[in-house]
Records
---
Amino acid sequence: MAAPEPAATVAAPGDAATNRGDLHTISLLVSDRPGVLVRVALVFARRGYNIESLVVSPGARGGFSRMTITCSGDPATLSQIIKALGKLVDVVQATDHTEDRAHETEIALVKIASTLDQRTAILQIAEHYSAKVVDYGSESLILRAVGASDKLDTFIELLRPFGIVELVRSGKILMARGLLET
Amino acid sequence: MSDTTTQDAPPASRPQSGPATTPTTPPAAARGGQKDGRGAKRPGQRLGAQVLVECLEQAGVEYIFGLSGGAAIPIFDALVDSKIKLLLVRHEQGATHMADGYARATGKPGVVLVTSGPGATNTVTGLLTAHMDSAPLIVITGQTLQANLGSDAFQEADVTGITYPVVKHSYLLKDGADIPRVVREAFYIAQTGRPGPVLIDVPKDVSQGPCTPREVGALDLPGYRVPGRGASEDIKALAEKLARSRRPVLYVGHGAVISNAGPAVMALAEKLRAPIVNTLLGKGAADETHELHLGMLGMHGTAYANKAVTDCDLILAIGARWDDRITGKLDAFCTDAVKIHIDVDPAEFNKVVRPDLTVLGDAKRVIEELLPLVSRLDTEAWLAQCATWRRRYPLKYARRGGLRAQHVLDRLDALTAGQTIITADVGQHQMWAAQFCRTREGRRWITSGGAGTMGFGFPAAIGAKLARPDEEVWAVVGDGGFQMTFAELATAAVHEVAVRCLVINNNYLGMVRQWQEMFFENRLSGVDLKGNPDFVKLAEAYGVKGLRIRRAGDIDRKLEEARAHLGPVVIVAEVVKEDNVFPMIPAGAPLSHMIIEAPTSKLDKPDGST
């Protein structure tokens, strides 16, 4: 991926929580050529469509990459966007998985500045969400949670009162279940 | 389309020692001369530019339209030894429109070669023009050394970045070994499916560096599919819908011209007994003088074409995309008619209208597959109605009170009897030419439709004339658009390209003036072209013959004089200043609100954008 990343990976958590219902998840299989990310991003940007998250990773076959894009906007525009993405020479396949049965997941890293007396409450929340403490300091904690994006939304909201210092989310990735192609 | 996933040889197979450049190479040193960091050229080894030009020769390129500059010098140098003819233009925009005219007159890609930075950015308008109208172009842009990319070096610009939205595809050629693959893919992509422009950005270290081209196997473009024949169930469904129609209209667009579907469309119209209308760019796909042809539809289309579309019970789009110039107010467009859309580009389906049926495929193949499944429809009453409209609302113009553009174009049509290629610029003259110069076959009418690029017409004529030297080629331009690209008079003169350039001179940007008169209480703003040169003297200054038409009585004599001249010629028609194009459907209004003749009452401002 030679192109610069055009979109923020993390939306404001409050927004994400309220918009989650309108979100679409698109999976792209693309040739790993310079500029492919820009070409994809321009299809959204030209129509004023907002990208919520975008994950790029190497595909199963060499020379191909997988992009998972979550975005919000009206469905008619989205259907045009998917057709326009399909027209790009470097895009092998573009599929909207919003209605599909697909396994979805995301990783969140949350840094919390916390005093020792808050730890028990935080760790209880972490345990409930199967989040792992990956950095344990005297003034701060880093929690790593894995799961569906809406589950991570609530996890983060529960931690918010303790004072979230930093938040990094990977963006959603998904894979079609069974032998269906993603 | 090949579905294989054969991978290119890994970059490690590059034969030269060392990487192309390293981050530690100071740009100043890299700029210093022939050194490119790739090692010396071995005896007998060719340079990247030579390989590039050879690949262009193998692709069948006859002409390159270009303007040189530092970063492109190695490629221009390689052209010295090539059989490809180089046409030096006077502005890069002219080169793109020439290549576009060449492409649209033949169906083969037109090739442009320019330098980096401003040379490349001057092609952007031409790229947009070709992209909007699906014309195959190959635009090769010189680029600075790869070490200078992103460094604001002299004449460096992010050319692939600037042009992404206006190309079908593009390449930044980073390794000379890839030249054969890239050229082959570029030509394939430019002219297959829905054609379009492809840009190849060639850094100078690639063009002037030694090159061992990597052999190309089968095309490996897994993300690029070219639709061919239609799905047979779709074509059957189409035939069934047609069979139930009593008031059908065939709505024919540029896709029908591009796929050479014209004869098939005409056979379909005759078999069904269905009337035809065409878009501005669909002119000539089917013979506009045929009794079943109602001419152009849309904003400035004929009244009878628009009335037929308003009242039809079925509209079959053949390679047309329901543009806003065609539909007017969308909610009111063909509300009760069955809408069917045949297109090679699936992204056009449901983009504007929601058709009852879509058929993905090449227009010619789909219509040919459809033909055996249809039979004559009961359309006699419908055709009689269309004939009545045609009689009642003919295209007309005043023959008195000064010279009229319509009169000149009407006579041009009569004298040439359609045996000509017309390239029109953009504006009132374009609409009048579309109305009065009836096109008999495909690739005889070339104009900038989607982009509406002023300055297109004259250079496009040069490209078309080079492509088809035995044809009579007329550019029909306005005084506004001609002044954007008239420097190419030098190109036409030097290469003795015998185009006839008819300048419809009303000393205004007439189409905007018409809008201001009709919708803005005649508050004229930014339309008066006071200061126009004497276009006859201008032509003569370039050594080009200049003629002038002042009176209606001179039209035939002057046009024939121009036709008889062996070299390029400029004919200036000094027409009345204030004339309007009718019929007209105000932008955003329904087709039924067509203004057939000059209105006497004040009109509301249009809802539509332009």
---
Amino acid sequence: MTAGPERPIAGEKPLEGINVLDFCWVAVGPMTTKYLGEYGATVVRVESVKRPDVLRRAAPYKDGISGINRSAYFASYNANKMGITVDMRHPRARELMLRMAKWAHLVTENFTPGTMESWGLGFDQLKEVNPGIVMFSTSMMGRGGPMERQPGFGPVLSSLVGLTNLTGWPDRDPVNPYGAYTDFIVPRFAVAAILAGLDRRRRTGEGIHIDMSQLETTLHFSAPVLLDYAVNGREQSRMGNRDSGAAPHGVFPCAGDDRWIALGCFSDGHWEGLQRTIAPDGSGWPYNPNFTTLLSRKANEDELERLLANWTSSWEAGALMETLQSSGVPAGMVNDCRDLFDDAQLQHRGHFQWLDHPEIGPYATDASEMVFSLTPGSLDTPAPLLGEYNSHVLKDLIGLSDEEYESLEEDGVLE
Amino acid sequence: MPGAQTGIDFLLAPYRVLDLTDERGLLAGKILADLGADVLQIEPPGGSPARNIGPFHGDDPLPEKSLFWWAYAANKRSITLDLEQKDGRALLEKLVAEADFLIESFSPGYLDGLGLGYQHLAEVNPKLVMVSITPFGQDGPYSNYQATDIVGMALGGFMYLTGDDDRAPVRISFPHFYLHGGAAGAAAAMLAHTHRVTSGQGQYVDVSCQQAVAKTLAHAPQIWDIEGSVLKRQGVYRQTSGENRVRINWPCKDGYVNYMVQGGSVSYSTRALLSWMGEDGLDITELEAVDWEEMGYGAITPELMEQLGGPLGDFFKGHTRAELVEGSLDRRILLFPVATPSDLQDHPQLEARRYFKELDHPELGVAVRYPGAFIKSGDGGDIAGLYRRPPLIGEHNLEIFQGELGLSTPELESLKRSGVI
């Protein structure tokens, strides 16, 4: 079966009819293809038994017991996808994958550059069997150049891209933005680029290979900082929580263990709202002339922060957020991960969805941040067990005969 | 025609975007413009408030010199329109009739209040894809909350997990809250577009920046959902399992490097570093004796980390960042610089891929190096990228209002006089 025209169906999901052969693994690729699956594409992940996705071996596991199908981390990023297992080093793997490439409109991968070519599955080879194929490749450093094969993991790219140096207290060592932060910046650029590539294919019939460097993409999240160096020669660095346009501006303690409120006063209106909330009778420290103007508050910011922290520390964070917001002060509690599940707005948006996984049971996964008026996305099926869809994909989607399928199994291709 | 207008043929060349956003959504249109779409930034007369955001060229705080604006308005054209006047709204409707996308970041309900909500615009152009980017979404309990970057990064769950464990959570010292929403806006626009080209139907998409931030937390929400434990911030450390954590940022002679001690499949990196330390004359006998090869991920105990910290810290402090990075490349050590802006300006990989792109600012008599394309074609060709310096306020009023909408010179003068443009 070859890639037919995408079916134009109104009222269904926007990517209905788009077939994705997905070699992505770990985080940045799977988060990208999760969006595609959530909006209706048919996504088939190609996995390996011998070299399973790193996230399949990453906590948290159901009941704390590790197992190839028990990671909720993997399960979250791979909802709405099917999965097959193929030993890419097997001599018959290439032929099988080329057959799937005929079925696919899009091939995605995030290996070190050169990996797909080493399997005989580079863009030129895919194009031979499917001239309209769109291939999306993303790697830390992009294809070509002296560092294309640079290895790396989680927190490294935040450091390479300059975000670590911008995070932390000026009197202390810099800290990494939480987790493999850049892995979660790249996917939205990736979705836009992939769909732009598919759009061009639709208009021209031509396939295209898109190469995305995660370093180059993430630099767009600090572009003004780079320009500041380029034109002014200034090396910006971390400032804790302060902001040149606001005072007070920061995170202040609330009642309880490790509970905090974030707030910032960028205008007279914000500051007056804070003054009124602290001292409704119009007297006391908020009305000290040292704090009247933004410039005076900046000049006395240490003292201002100390007095404010003293006041916030008796408040419950959620109550303080509501009180300050009702006075027109930008304020938000510092949500921890338990709070996120209780957050009234995230609940309203249906941010967490629960899927029932055969080994994990019900587990939470986060839905898209976009609400569509006509073609909403949805998360319907849990992440695949390793090799769960071998038979369905290869027989029902690709059209292998029972004999062909059994022969692949017997030869150890599907491992 | 837009493609012909720019003379470039990037992926989205046939499409036009009306960009009504300010600093809360500029990135969405920037992404589409980089992909080749013809993006008209619609500014209020006098200019977008995003032009007030520093830093500024030459530290001169003028609206045409905002580097924030430059970064996120490059490639776009600018027209001015006062949407609070009837003529402004009428002109917008004329543009909507021919546009493919409209992106906006006003407070929920603002455009509806002007009679320019999606319901109305869809009557003007049923194929329009309209994307709204707001802190929390169009409705719900927080939809009218005041938000700034720090408020959003806090409510999105990012801050609690970032910073030293003995101090308050921290944000990144460059605002990201709206950038996450902006990037999501571009993805949303393309998802809706994909449906439009097969169905002929436009639609409306409502993007929440808070949700976009909450999607950056890796497995932290799952750790609460599955294990019932709340992950905490770790400062310069990274939690590997249970009580075990390894240090990832280390001070060196002139800055910081990123290095994570690991055993198992990357024990070669640890061994190579230890032998380099040995060459420097540090006593590493005890550390050499550790069975790194058999040590799994997360098996480095606090005691071992303590034992390592002294000699490793001394070693790093004795070398510059450049020495450590170069030596590590030669020795196959997984060590990386904690880069500063100057490191990135002459980064060998970015140079080799011709990443930075110079754009002329003739009014200022300067050429400026901008961060360039976020994609290339697999053979290194240009399929996206920069082709136009950021626009001056209303720079393209004449070519749009007169050239495209056919307004006469007296009409343009009337509109200018009444403050519509």
